[in-house]
Specification:
This protein has a single domain, classed as Metal-dependent hydrolases (TIM Barrel), CATH 3.20.20.140. Helix content is about 35%, strand content about 20%. The strands form 2 sheets. The protein has an 8-stranded parallel sheet. Strands 1-2 form a two-stranded antiparallel ribbon. Helix 1 packs parallel to helix 2, helix 4 packs parallel to helix 5 and helix 6 crosses helix 7. The protein is globular, with a radius of gyration of 20 Å. The structure holds zinc ion (ZN). Zinc ion (ZN) binds next to loops.
Length: about 240
């Protein structure tokens, strides 16, 4: 509307309408089939590729726990083959774990091979990392991937968050956030809204409850958190 005040200057009043953008509550990383109308990305082990359906969203990869005794060559070609499907939207979870799986040198090799597949197929990478942060940061520096990387199920301290953020990574928080220590709450607050994801992982928890809890820790509305994660999702998998 235009109001003509007595001084004769036209003033435009901008009325902001409620956003009509389609919003979904996104589960960035889960091992369960999708529920209701949430939008979830289901992470499958390479031994589970038969669970890929035509319509849901998936990521696949050789998990660091299973880097030891299998026929890796055959598994790389499975990653390469299945990740070409348009609804397999990322490579993961892959990564490094000093508590389980093959010796770290072997895990680095398996991780690197899959990063190369991700780069070739233009798929982002979802990472499982336990006590191998220095190695992971070194790999990021050395490989200089074009595709974005996200750490899933993060439960570390904010000092580490800062290092991962400056290496350009996204960070996803899972069920541990429901009983977050002071340290984990600080980590959640340290991640800016444009680098954050929320996930249920393998736990039977309510996604909505996770969003509510994390938005309280970040002192924003759940709606705001949802909106930002929708944007991050488009950016990360875009
Ligand atoms: Zn997982």
């Amino acid at each position: 509307m235009i109001i003509k005040p007595f001084i004769g200057v036209s003033v435009f009043i901008v009325v902001s309408l409620p956003s009509t953008k389609y919003q979904k509550m996104i589960d960035f990383h889960t091992h369960q089939p999708p529920v209701d109308n949430d939008s979830s990305v289901r992470s499958l082990l390479i031994s589970e590729v038969d669970k890929i359906t035509p319509h849901d969203l998936f990521t696949i990869g050789i998990h660091p726990w299973y880097t030891e005794e299998m026929d890796l060559k055959a598994h790389y070609s499975l990653v390469n083959e299945f990740a070409q499907r348009s609804n397999v939207i990322g490579i993961g979870e892959i990564g490094l774990d000093k508590h389980r799986g093959a010796p770290i040198e072997k895990q680095i090799e398996v991780f690197e091979k899959q990063v190369l597949i991700a780069e070739k197929l233009n798929k982002p990478v979802i990472i499982h990392c336990v006590r191998a942060w220095a190695e992971l940061l070194e790999l990021k520096k050395r490989l200089k991937p074009e595709m974005p990387w996200a750490i899933h199920g993060f439960r570390g301290q904010s000092e580490l968050v800062k290092q991962l953020l400056s290496a350009g990574m996204y960070i996803s928080f899972g069920p541990e956030s429901l009983n977050a220590s002071e340290g984990l709450q600080e980590s959640i607050r340290t991640v800016p809204l444009n680098r954050l994801f929320v996930e249920t992982d393998d736990a039977d928890v309510s996604l909505k409850y996770l969003y509510t809890t994390i938005s309280k820790i970040k002192r924003i509305t759940t709606r705001d958190l949802e909106e930002n994660i929708n944007d991050n999702f488009a950016e990360f998998f875009g």
